[in-house]
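Dissemination and training. As part of the outreach component of the grant, students in the summer workshop were shown how a complex can be specified as a set of sequence lines and then modelled as a single object. The example used during the hands-on session is reproduced here so that future cohorts can follow it. Participants entered these lines:
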Amino acid sequence: MTRLFRFIVPIACFLIFQGVYAIDISFSASSGGGTVGIAGSYDVDDSVGVSGKASASFDGGVSMTDSQSLSGSGDADIKQVMYGSGGADYVLNYALDILGATSIKGTGRSTLTPVAGSASRSVSTTGTSLMTSELSGVQGGDFAGVWSYGQSADVSTTQSVDTGQSVTASQSISAEGLYVWAYGGAIDAYGNWAETSVGVLDGRVVADQEVEAGNSAFANQTAELEGGYGWAWAAAEDEEGNEAWTESYVEDGDITTGQYAAADDGASASQTTVVEGEDGRAESYAEDDEMNRVMTWAMIENGTLETDQMVWAGEDWWFDDEGAVASQHTFIEADRGNATSMAWDDDGNFASTSASMTNGTLETHQDVWAGDDWWFDYEGAEAYQDTFIEADRGNATSSARDDDGNFANTSASMTNGTLETLQGAWAVEDWGDDYEGVEAYQNTFIEADRGNASSAARDDDGNFANTSATMTNGTLETYQGAWAVEDWVDDYEGVRAGQWTMITAENGSAMSRAEDTNGSYIKIGAEVENGSLETNQWVEAVNSARGYQNTSIVGDFALAFCEANNTDRSYFAYVANRIDGNASLEFEGNATVNASEAWANLSSHAEGDRIRGLATSTFGTISDEYWGSCNYDIVAYENGTSGFLAIAKGTTI
Amino acid sequence: MNRFRTLTTALLLAALISTAPAASWTGSVHNVTDGSSWWIHRQSGTMKLNISSSVEGEIAPIAVTPAGRVLSPHYSGMADLDANDVRLQERTAALEGTYSSEEQISLKAEAEASVNRTYSKPAGSNVWTITLEENWPVALNASRTVDYVGKNINDRDRAGNSGDSVGASFLYNKELSRERNVALRLERLNATVIATNDTIISVDVFPTRSTVYYITSHSTGIADLRYRQLDSRGDLINLGEERYSGTYDITRKVEMESVYTNDTDEKDWLSCCVGGCSDLDPCEIASWGEVGVFDCACS
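and obtained this result:
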């Protein structure tokens, strides 16, 4: 008998045989240095019938088979220990506790040898005040077990456990009642563990669970539940401390899910889930031993959620990378829906991406990552999404913040329409040649009553850049982004934002703004009414601010401008073109502001019923008005003590 | 030389018994309510043992060193056979004299058949019935003759079969001539335990067995003859003990048989194992050597 076995058997017997009114029956057999046995403790009502038969065989080594049955009503408290020693010592434990059942039916079987054992138990109860059924096994430090629980419930469960190469436990449960619950757990000799659970309040559950321990740990379940409040989850943690879990729950609704968790040189968890109810949620989380963390979730109000989620945390997934990864593919049809993914690395870099909607549908793919040594020495946090929304309201946002305080965000939203976006954000270090910073991008198409897309970045020094596009009753297509960086190429640092945008709508505008640490800013923009606007804009702020746009507008109304404003010294430069009626504008402009000057200029070709050109500063304003077709070159400049304004026009009648 | 042969035979016998492949099983019932409990342990093996020996010689002093150190003349021999509670014990010790003996032992045991246990408590009842069923047969035949004339001989044997036992002890004999034949049979064993949630009501152990013991002797010292037979609950139902001091010629045959069907709820029986061996003569279960034989105060 090994030291472990000598330890386990007395403990198990001590725990089991504590009944005050019980009969203990044991039977063991030995041969050739091997021993098998079964011991049971029975505390049952007179109204409960119990029978069993065990047979010990000695042909070709000792072994034992056992079968048993249970029937009747009332209370039953049965505990059994099955064991083998002389080879790979093991112990199987079974405990059944039933209170106040109107009917009880149960069967069981066991097959035991000195090196391996298996046992199965089935029990069905109705009208049970309380019932628990537990079956577990331990061998060589590996443990696996399953539990079923019911309160004021009808419970039918079939459980089994096997030892040998590894320890596995499984159960199939069908239960309905005030509170029903099923759980499976496994932990191996090295500390790898995995668990899975399903439960419901005031409802029903049908589930299959399986757990295994043996130089690793696994847990999986398939479950269907319906009730006032229900949940299902699976979790795992490996011996290094990498952990992962996935779960789903619902209020006043139902869940159909398949879940899996593993601890095997890393921890992973996944689920394929459908939730339908008043409130529902499915989420997954992973954290590695370095505290790189990821999380992804999807949630609904009054609707349906379909999601595939996966999380992983560990080392050496591909090459020498380590960290945590999460992904989800989700479809939502609901009054409200949201899908979000987040990542934090161990240095404090953070990235997230999120999509949400009201009264409609949402489909999204999201991926997040946080870790170290990705590819070469690259480390940080990243988040991406590919999303389509058709709803009364929809929004998709991605943002990143690095450990120095640099921040970037990109967002798209709409009202009464569709939104399709591909976007991402990351906060990284040591990307390429010591580059670090945050970035956020999106490629978005919106067709809706209202639509907006914007991107912004702020660096740790306070430089800020933003770009946005907005429209009403039309379409908006944009590729835009913002970033705040340090040590880019030759120690460059600062913020940038830019967009290429195409709008066809009743109203449309595209604006960009950059502001330096002194509060001086540049702002460029373009607007259209009842027409189309195509613009290419970018702005940046690096202890100064500058921007550029190249814009084409066709519509009833067109406006494009460039502004540079030194708020610290209260001077500015502004140039613009405006067209009212049958407008067509080809516009290219720049704006720059720094500690000593503000400067703006434009070069354009304008057509329309009423065309105006404008240049203004603190010294004054000059303007020009025309109709038909003309070309403009306009400049505004000011340095605080002097400046000039100029409009040059070439006309074509 | 003769003494050497006899010792060799005894050691070989012990070795054969101890190295035989063993199988065992244990069953128990414990009532937590009042603490009453019962258990049974059985051990056997699938084996055969055949021994035949013949000894004839003088027990005499011998010089073992060039300086002339002389060993005291003596002979001692023992045999312990135990297969599934079918037992044969023999102890012999003799001082200087003329000694001859012949012995044949044949043992056959099987422990391959499954051992079955059942338990049941019908719904509506508080009575538990636990049964155990074993089919591990044992057959042991042993015959032995001893002839001795000399300073002193002690010769004892005992045959046991699932609690039944028969034996004879010849002590402090200057002349001893005896012939003994033993036939022990064990077919199977059934046991039934009846209990409630409050206590164990009854335990019946039913080993189907037969014991035949035949002896004829001539002795000049003490001759003790005894037999014992138990029922299914371990209660003593037949017992005989006799002591003869002096010169006697004795002939005796004891046959005991207990036959049970597989229907195990018949009568009251208890195996030897339940009562243990506490009621045996301590000298019968003690380790026997030269000193033990001649200093024995149990007679």
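The interface with chain A takes residues 21-33, 111-126, 128, 130, 132, 195, 197 of chain B (CB under 8 Å). Students were then asked to discuss how this feature might be tested experimentally.
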